[in-house]
Amino acid sequence: MVQQPKRTFASLRAQPSKSIAGDVDEKIEQTARRLFSGHDGLRVMGWLLERANAVTPLNSSNETLREAEGARRFMNGVLRSIAPE
Q: How far apart are CA 34 and CA 53, in angstroms?
């Protein structure tokens, strides 16, 4: 069995943003706001927040602590960007 590499929030860095479909003039914040406004979107947002704010175990490595803090900062940025204007 081939083991998959561990995916982290840091793996999202430096990935170019490419528009796949839709209005290319629409801001990503508007798209995200629409995405998370429905029942399924709210459910996914709750899950993401739960994962990002999970308690880190005692004696966690510095790498694990940095990863957890990065996840929290990422989700806080998402929440700020989709907040009503």
A: 23
